[in-house]
Amino acid sequence: DFEIISAAGAATVTTIVQTPATVSYGQSFTYAVKVTPTTAGGPTPTGTVIVNGSGNIGAWITLTNGQGSQTIQVDAGTFKATAVYQGDSNYAASSSPMITTTVAKVDTPVSLTTTASYVLPGQQTSLNVVVTGHSYGKYGYYNPQGSVQFFTSVNGGPQQAISGSLSMAPTQPQMDAAVSLRATLPTGTNVVTAVYSGDQDFNSVTTTPVTIVVTSPDFTISSDPSSLTVSAGGSTTDALSVTPILGFSGSVSLSCASGLPAGATCSFSPSSLSSGGGQSNLTVRMQGPFTTQAD
């Protein structure tokens, strides 16, 4: 038996540079390597540079004119990487100084929806959260991990949890994850949010709130336009719509509350709506114009 041992070649210096310097999850970055002979005048180094690193960091780069590059994409985290030149028939192997690659976590879209804006006391409603994953294109996708917890603030009060931490499941499209909760909310105006815990790649995110009113059968009033401008001595009319909610079927009487500007009056036509809803015209009149004579 015998072993062939390559003769030591000329010394080299290997360097590695990361571009861009700042990277977030889902963003590709490039390792550029260069091998330079310590003594000028010789042939250009050939062969391969292997980038070794922690986590999923790794690249196999073939040199062209003594340099090369590789673009990669990895999970969020902090990694160490070193470029190791393998040497060729003229030059000895060498290693670069270690560099640090930090891939920052990112915010991912998290949506909260509900099946109803108004709910009867004691009635359950569905709260649905979808956390958007990341697509690697033809290489697949990443499903968000972690958990979701639901909270409500009732009538402007402090937040209170309405669930524990709930696990998510993959959904369609496949890269997303979702969780649903059937909840019985307290009576009153509930401002509901969901908090996604985050995972190795995504930051924790609190959803945009949804408002759910838990009440007995009632009605809402809306106007078009929502504001009125009245000149002195003139009048204007606004259409009010009364909409029943949760099966409200009673009659609604309309009248002007206190607090109108001085010299203003208002009236409704009709002033009463039956069967829980309908439309009435609000007319506002302003006295004047007035002339003041100085003594």
How would you describe this structure to a colleague?
The protein is mainly β and 295 residues long. Helix content is 0%, strand content 50%. The protein contains no helices and 28 strands. It has strands at 12-19, 23-24, 29-37, 48-53, 58-62, 67-72, 77-85, 94-95, 99-104, 110-114, 118-119, 124-131, 134-135, 141-142, 147-154, 159-161, 166-167, 169-170, 177-184, 188-196, 205-206, 210-214, 218-224, 235-245, 252-253, 264-269, 272-273, 278-286. The strands form 7 sheets. Strands 11, 15, 16, 17, 20, 21 and 22 form a 7-stranded mixed sheet that branches. Mean pLDDT is 88; it is low at 1-7.
Poorly predicted tracts of residues? 1-7
Structural class: mainly beta
Computed over alpha carbons, the radius of gyration is: 35 Å
The overall pLDDT average reads 88
Instruction: Tell me the overall shape.
Output: elongated
Helix content: under 10%
Percent of residues in β-strands:
over 45%
What is the CA–CA distance across the termini?
Answer: 129 Å
- The run of helices and strands is EEEEEEEEEEEEEEEEEEEEEEEEEEEE
DSSP helical segment count: 0
Q: Count the strands?
A: 28
The major pleated sheet works out as: 7 strands, mixed
Q: What is the gist of this entry?
A:
By secondary structure, the chain is mainly β.
